[in-house]
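To whoever picks this up:

The parser on our side crashed when reading a file containing two proteins. I've narrowed it down to the boundary between the first structure block and the second sequence. Both blocks are reproduced below exactly, byte for byte. First block:
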Amino acid sequence: MSFKHIGLLCSGGDAPGMNCAIRAVVRTAIYHGIKVTGIKRGYAGLLRGEFTPMNLSSVGNIIQRGGTILQTSRCPEWMKKEFRAKAVDILKHQGIEALIVIGGDGSFNGAMALWDEHQFPVVGIPGTIDNDISGTEYTIGFDTAVQTAIEAIDKIRDTAHSHARTFLVEVMGRNSSAIALKVGVCTGAENILLNNEKVNHQKLSDDIQRGMARGKDSSIIVVAEGPTAGRSYDIQNVLKDMYHLEAHVAILGHIQRGGSPTSNDRFIASQMGNMAVQSLIDGKYPTVTVVRSGKVLMAPLMECTKKADNNLEEFQKLAETLSI
């Protein structure tokens, strides 16, 4: 099928680099003579008919901007078949023949349903700072989130040293420890507490006190937030009540979502946007852009509809060795 008009939306949490992917999709489509319509605020905006025509000017001067110019949202209604059927009718009424979705595994499940139920052509681009989508080694936004956290912890370490304090620095990672592990290694953290591991408070206390015994007056503990943000406060209380250790908590929170994307995120997002359009042109759908063995490729969308803890487990030993 030769497409003349495609739709584009972002869904779920925003991630730095989404604008780079949007830019690449629009410019690649226009290069091939394909009309592009942007859909504001994800699937919810689709159901409300929030459409905006996109041209070269629409994506000018956005490659360096964080967030997404199309905005994004969650859409509980999308879980119901009748709303997905309504969405297909809306798309067809607009003359949109295929859809590119930038988002996470939930967004991809929503896109997959459009294909399974209505054979509506869809292609996905993985965008989430957590790097937690099955089938791909990398998702847009991860590198920027890591760099943001590194810069924050470097500043916190200055204060930790000046006041001889221990800091529990909580980074995002509800279902993945990828950010925590990479940030921990890159900042020389004394401990890294992964999202899926029970905290060994005794070991944590022993590690802190061992450092103090050799003259180390400050420590940085990187904590993956896990299912509930604020996990670090529970750890802080246990350290104080049971081990008489004072620790300060710094929760980095949503600053990790924002900011200008790194060169790595810009480059990968640009490749992914280009390849997503090319995949539609080549008649390869439902598919998703992925990174495997360091290369951007296309893969079946079904392979990327689940959570995956891409937490770089092979580097856990490295982190443990360097933190003695």
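<<boundary where parser fails>>
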Amino acid sequence: MKKIKVLYVEDEPFLGKIVSESLESRQFDVLLVADGREVMAAYGQFQPDICVLDVMLPHRDGFSLGQEIRQHNPQLPIIFLTAKNQTQDVVQGFESGGNDYIRKPFSQEELIVRIQNLLRMSGAAPVAPPPSDGVIRLGRYRFVPLRQELHFENDFRSLSHRETQLLEILATRPNEVVQRKDILLQVWDNDSFFNSRNLDVYITRLRDYLKEDTAVQILTLKGVGYRLVF
């Protein structure tokens, strides 16, 4: 079986070595690059199936690299790694072409799971079937659309029909940008100004419902739509 090729860009030698060895132990083919100015040449020669890019790099930052890689290959999965934790940094990562964003420090298992998830979504790896119990897991939450319930640990919240519709649209397309117009047409059947304001209200409610797990966020891409990350 052909190994999945990971272009991993990290300027911290110890972390780079540990992560590379962890990925290689899972049968990934890893090319580690430590200098931002060497990334594009490495990308062209290696032709990776997925890129894992640190943001803070010598000579060139990961966001600008992500933008250039995205111009070459609009479908290639890109994960950004960074110690930055502000929401605007997360948004910048996605606007720079990223499909996912992991804050440091992170566990090896988390990185591997996120890589596998993006590979399935891109078609580079088999797509996992939907959960047979009808439960969608969002970080520490369990979302049960059929029962219109959102569970967190031992508590749960009953959702309205439209809250359920909206959350299901976002939850079944994790880490993807969902167009605002598409949401309005699916949930309200038209994209009028009045319904657009209603959508803003529902997004605010869902963010409040999901606030117990800070890793779960609904990001707004102004003028475009929303992205659910966890």
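After patching the parser it read the second block fine. The CA atoms of residues 215 and 230 lie 5 Å apart. The first strand starts at residue 5 and ends at 9.
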